[in-house]
Amino acid sequence: MNGEPIVILLAEDDPAHAEIVRRNMENSRIANRLEHVTDGQQALDYLYRRNGFSDPARSPRPGLILLDLRMPKLDGIEVLSAVKSDPALARIPVVILTTSAAEMDIAKAYDHHANSYLVKPVDFSQFSELLETLGYYWLAWNQKPY
Amino acid sequence: MSTLPLRLLLFCCLLSVLVQNPAWAESPRLIRIGAFNYYPGIFQDTDGAVKGFYVDALAEVAKRENLRIEYVYGSWAEGLERIRTGEIDLLTSVAYTPERAKYLDYAKTPLLTVWGELYVPLASEIDNITKMQDKKVAVMKHDFNGQSFIELVKSFGITCEFVELAGFEEVFAAVAEKRADAGVVNNTFGGPKHKEYQLRSTGVVFNPFDIYFAVAKNKNTDLLTLLDTYLTRWRHQEDSVYLKARQQWAHGTPEKVHVIPHWLLLCFALLGLLTLLATAFIILLRRQVGRSTKAILQREASLRESTEMTRLLLNSTAEALFGLDLDGTCTFCNTACLKILGYDRAEQLVGKNMHELIHYAREDGSLLEARDCLILQSLHQEAVIHVEDEVFWRADGTFFPIEYWGHPILRENKILGWVVTFVDITERKRLEDSYVFLSQSGYQHPGENFFEALVRHLAENLNLDYVCIYRLKGDGHLARTVAIYHDGQLRDNIEYSLEGMPCGEMASQSIRCFAEGVRHLFPQACLLQELQAVSYMGATLWSFDGRPIGLIAGIGRNRLANVQLAESILKLVSLRAASELERTQAAEELLQKNIEIERFTYAVSHDLKSPLVTIKTFLGYLQHDLAVGNSETIEKDMGFMRAATEKMTNLLDELLRMSRVGRVINPPVQVSFDALVAEVLATVAGAIQQRGVEVRVTKGAVILHGDRPRLAEIWQNLIDNAVKYMGNQPAPRIEIGLETMGKEQIFYVRDNGMGIDPRHGHKIFGLFDKLDPCTEGAGLGLALVKRIVELYKGRIWLESEGHGLGSCFRFTLPEAFNRQGDGQA
After folding, report:
1. Please, which pLDDT band fits residue B24 given cuts at 50, 70 and 90?
2. B563-628 and B426-439 are packed helices; what angle lies between their axes, rounded to 10 degrees?
3. Best label site of B24, B111, B682, B716, fewest CB within 10 Å?
4. Contact by Cβ (8 Å): B119, B181
5. Pick the CATH number of B594-660 from 2.40.340, 1.20.950, 1.10.287, 1.50.10
6. Cross-chain residue pair A72–B772, CB shorter than 8 Å
């Protein structure tokens, strides 16, 4: 636990799912700032501070990216690929958070150097537990890069 | 019988002779001679004159001895009586009997030797004396022969009835008139006379005796001596008057008199005969020689003709052939043989050892020893050999594969030599190579697919510089290669137009080969110009149902040496290539379908799971909120859940619509483009009006043929989308129309709304792909449109300048214009 608490960037097109993540963080007393974008294009715009994300104060560099795979315009894999192929962004841990358990998706994600791959459980308590664990793991225990 | 005028005539004749001969001037001595019918010695002719050879002979004596002869004609009996009475001086033809000797003196030299002979009619059965029993026999009265015969039958104990007649003539007449069964005459009469009476001799001869001149006893003995002298001389002299007269009267005509000596005549005759024989022989010989010469010439001509025929025959056979003697030396060869082996004249082969000349090595260049040569080893055997895996060497040192047959030439089971016939089987080998290629599935180089292997094979086997195989696209004017082999290397596949190419022209034909000058034939074909092409060959690849689906094209920078071979090979490989093209096409389509299904399953599972996650999670929150009584969040929770179920409902609805495409088929109908667009606009009129969209329709007199509700769905979705993604455009506008580009009819639906970033253009037709998560719908609209368009063999694409610049969807529906087809079925 060093320095300032990291900013979490959530890229999720489904508002309901974004609400779930937000509520879970609230419930788990995770005070980290959560920034939400609704498609892959916005996610990259945020990371590169383009098209309305140019203010560094409003769009701080995230310490963790929660990335959905199926999104309009640019999908999660495209965003992941862009992040991991840019040395300036490559070190940001990217956690894939998706409903898809398809082998192809999992393989592709790891091929593009995803740091973790999580499947959204259909069960309420499991989903809550997953998000709670995710918070502890990535925010409390995981050593963030410099 | 005798008449005065006759006698007078005779006298006159004699007188005239006497007057001519001065030696007879003194009065000649008169001799009276008793004449009777004793043919041919003496007889009275029909004119009354006494004739016969005695008469001729006596006339000669009379001429020489100055005698005058007077004949007193009567019967034999009368004659005998007259000499007794002294009425006549001389009697001829008197046989000696002791009784007659009492009153007659006989000459010493016999006049003739005569015998008796029995004559019968031609049809009589009598042929010997034993058959004479009770037969009636005619004889001459007082004839010595008749008396002898009477005694003869008596001695045999045979009884006959005898009829005595005056003379031999009467005897023959009696027999001829059947008054007697047989008649006895002497041989001198019977010989010349029997034919006249149509009688024949029985062969019964008897009593040979001599007849003499006779005079009355002791009277005219000097005459007898004189006649004796002449007779003795004449009987021994061949050309004597006596013998000549006898001969003449016995056989011939009395008018003809031989004046040439008999021996001369004989000589002449002999000579004539010889000359005749010689001439005949010469003629015969000449004719024979002529005939032989002609036969020889004919035989020579026919031999020449048959030799020529054989030569022509040998030279007009397509099969090459040569003959060998038993040492393996060439004895003959035909034109085909010379041509194939690359020689000009037969002399270059004839007399040479053929094995050493043309058969000395194998295909790999290794020496073929004489002991390994099947021909040489078989020369002394009566066998037939057939080989098809060897090569012959040409005059220029190149070789070619051959098939040959060897047969011994036999004459009467003896081997005279051998004849070897052979054909160049280069073509067959090449064709076999293609068979082998196909039978080994064509995968000879690792990592090459069938088409790549095939273009390589064709280039190598047909000596081509460029070979490619394409798949026809659209209506057959566009082509995409599946393999290109160019100058020894496989090249990347390309897509190009077939306009102006020979292959474009041959889309309706099967196989075409241009051996040379192809650049001039197709001046607008850039590829041919670029490659400096000389020859071209192409084969259309046909689908199972008879549509042209692809082409094989080969281009050479050299003249095509063997068009027939090229055609055969193309024909052969095109069958397999076509099926392979169909197979790969089907496999590709299947792969596409699989991918689509996979994507569909994936998308469905994701898009259905996502709202489920929402619902279940918010159910958990709801439970918690209900427990704490947080009514504010309860409402919020339920809102999320409602939205999720709504999303699921939409998704299921669209899936249902999607599944109908290609499954539910309405009967095809004719509908005009205008009517279809009007119908669609009516259904979306509410949304259009609400957003204030201006709709412009460019009318086109086009009739579409197909499933009407399904066709309408295309425009409905596109117009829906256009309205939905109009964004904040203050003057929203939608243009609907149809334009012709080349040979294609292209429909369009253009708007001036949000537009689509070209970067995202590729995914808008995917299942569940939405560019804006906030809009309604499950993202199946364009996927649905694409599926319908594809059912009509069309394509759909997006043209957009980018975000905010509006978008234009263009699509084609070729099958909807095909009135023969039944639309999507």
Report:
1. very low
2. 10
3. B682
4. no
5. 1.10.287
6. yes
